[in-house]
Amino acid sequence: MASREILHKMKHDFWTETESAVKRAYIETDDKILEQALILGRGGSTAVTAILIDGQKLVVANVGDSRAVICENGKAKQLSIDHEPSKEKKSIEKRGGFVSNIPGDVPRVDGQLAVARAFGDKSLKMHLSSEPDVFEVEIDQHTEFLILASDGIWKVMSNQEAVDSIRQIKDAQAAAKHLIEDAISKKSKDDISCIVVKFQ
């Protein structure tokens, strides 16, 4: 199939079979990262993405513990699943891996990774998944904003605390900066990445 035809098919699939198109994009992204493992290194990454279709349908996908939280009428609603090893123990063991549970530490895949799904991590890949969970929600007049953030935010504040922290800030970039500073002030020791999307 010519590259133009492949691109046309991908666009068509996105509009007609959004969930499967997003899942395929995540798998293909993981494949590209693994191909570059010698250059990029052995590590990996979590991810959360959001796509707004026609200003009405929000499609959220994630692997790992990066999280999407939406604010509707001041209430926080989580739109993603944190992929914790303890929750996916059976599927990890089915792939030949194990989940450690050492007192004082979080559960880890093969005693190393604290998430059950991720991009990269070539040395653990046979025991990990890079297939995202995908959720669709309707955006309406009650939808105020969306937070997309890594676990450095969520380790130190609840979904509602994050929403309350920035609800009165009108500018999205200023809101994201405030949320990062709030997490740092709460002594977050994990990586912090954050995007805030405001809806009209």
Automatic annotation (TrEMBL):
Catalyzed reaction equations: O-phospho-L-seryl-[protein] + H2O = L-seryl-[protein] + phosphate; O-phospho-L-threonyl-[protein] + H2O = L-threonyl-[protein] + phosphate
EC number per UniProt: 3.1.3.16
Name of the protein in its database record: protein-serine/threonine phosphatase
CDD domains: PP2Cc
UniProt similarity note: Belongs to the PP2C family.
One Pfam family named in its UniProt record: PP2C
Single GO term (MF): protein serine/threonine phosphatase activity
Family matches, as SUPFAM superfamilies: PP2C-like (SSF81606)
